[in-house]
Amino acid sequence: MKNSIENLFQKGKTEKPPASLDNFILAQAKNSCDEKQSSASKSNRNKWLYSLSSAAVVVLSFSVIFNLQNENMQISDQPMMLEKPSIENNVDKEENDANFKRSAKKVINDPVPESPLVVTEAESVEVYEESVESQVPVAAGLSMQDNNRENNTSNNDETKSVATSQPKAITPAPKKAMDEASSKEEEQAPFIQAPKMTQSIEREIQQSDYSTQNDDSENLDKITVTGSRLMIEPISDDEDTFNSAKENKKELSFTQQLEQLGDLIKDKKFEEAKQMLKQLQKSYPYYDFSKYKKILD
Amino acid sequence: MTETSDEELMLAFAQHDQNSFEQLYARHKDALYRYFRRHLSNESTCQELYQDLWMNIIKSKENYKVTAKFTTWMYTLAHNRLVDWYRRNKLETKSFESNTEESDTDGSIDWDPEDEFQTKRLSKHLKSAIEKLPFDQREVFLLHQEAMLSLPQIADMLEEGIEKIKSRYRYAINKLRSNLENLR
């Protein structure tokens, strides 16, 4: 019987790989599948993490920008909010007074605006040269002399336009004196009451020459600047002019008081000078008043 | 019910399907092992190369593309691995081909398939005869009889001419027949 070699070869196919080798190969294949699945899940998780973190960054950045914008808006609103309580409470009195003095000086120095400045003289209104001059700091020796005050009483019940009125009401102070006074004034403690209204400026002007003890109500004027209108009104009678004068006396700066003391000595008013020196010594115990003491002794 | 093709199983294994690989492995493990076993007399070397080949298949699963039959691709890898091993061990893979034994090509021998004792004895001699074949002829014979590849497929796989492959196969059959006839 003849059969091919191929048939004989197929009959002899009995060999098989060992079972351990089979198990090893199958285990390797399984591991590769598990690793790939875990890496796939990791890559998916990484994708989620990346997208979540990027979304969080975007949200945070937007919130930061939004907060910054809000802060900027609040900062832009703050001046209005801060200005009011500072004026009302007189917390920073010096600063407010300095601002007021600057604005008052501007009112004095500025040329007359196109719209007429109206000086209203109410019932007992009297416009004095000094009332304007007194806006210049009332530094002793530098202030405008108020010798002509008595002659400057004007007619009552009249409203005069400054543009049309004669220069009798306002006589400009010498420029040099004005500059010196303003520079000194800025260094010294304020003596003018700060305004309470933001859109108008009120000020009491009192004659600084308290040595004359001239505390008539005539000397107390109220200037109100509303828009382009300058209103000068007398302080009403019911206001305590004496107290206000006393306050103004207290508000005089140290250098002004020294200058007044010097003036008293010059005028040979030694008793008053001594009293003032005593007060000064009480107020400023660390200052050397020996020069004045020697003169008075 | 149609059986899932090797290519589909390999693609499924590339998608991390462990069962597909088990099916694929069960189909081809014996033939591949015998392929190596017929080429290599040393069993441990056979197991080493066999394991390396399957590891290579597992690693390259994601790069697998259906450009040919899975068996063609797998035995190409096996052939390359074997040639590499031969070169490392400085063994000759090319044989001198002569036409002296090309007279009888039918390859038939006298043996009774029902006689198990004779079949086992002849089979054992056949295996030893195969080991004595030159590498080229043995490779063609094993690829054709073990991997069940057609001669044209073998020609494509080895990038040789079809006539050359046919000639190698005839040489292999004649040598095996002559060896078996010498037993008698």
Integer-rounded radius of gyration of chain B: 18 Å
Total count of strands of chain B: 1
Strand order of the largest sheet of chain A: 4-5-6
In DSSP terms, counting alpha (H) and pi (I) runs of 4 or more, how many helices of chain A?
9
| Overall 3D shape of chain A | rod-shaped
In DSSP terms (H or I, runs of 4 or more residues), the helix count of chain B works out at 8
List the helices and strands and how they pair.
The complex is a heterodimer of chains A (297) and B (184).
Chain A: E1 2-4, H1 5-11, H2 19-89, H3 93-109, E2 118-121, H4 129-133, E3 158-161, H5 175-187, E4 200-205, E5 221-226, E6 229-234, H6 241-251, H7 254-266, H8 270-283, H9 290-296
Antiparallel strand pairs in A: 2-3, 4-5, 5-6
Chain B: H1 6-14, H2 18-39, H3 43-59, H4 70-88, E1 108-110, H5 116-132, H6 135-145, H7 151-158, H8 162-181
Structure description:
The complex is a heterodimer of chains A (297) and B (184). Chain A is built from nine helices and six strands; from the N terminus they run βαααβαβαβββαααα. Chain A is mostly helical and 297 residues long. Chain A has a three-stranded antiparallel beta sheet with strand order 4-5-6, with no helix packed on it. A two-stranded antiparallel sheet of chain A has the order 2-3. In chain A, α7 runs antiparallel to α8 (270-283). The longest helix of chain A has 71 residues, at 19-89. The termini of chain A are far apart. The model of chain A is unreliable at 115-173, 189-202 and 204-220 (pLDDT under 50). Chain B has helices at 6-14, 18-39, 43-59, 70-88, 116-132, 135-145, 151-158, 162-181; one strand at residues 108-110. Chain B is built from eight helices and one strand, in the order ααααβαααα. Chain B is mainly alpha-helical and 184 residues long. The interface between A and B is large, with 30 and 43 residues. β1 (2-4) of chain A pairs antiparallel with β1 (108-110) of chain B, so a sheet runs across the interface.
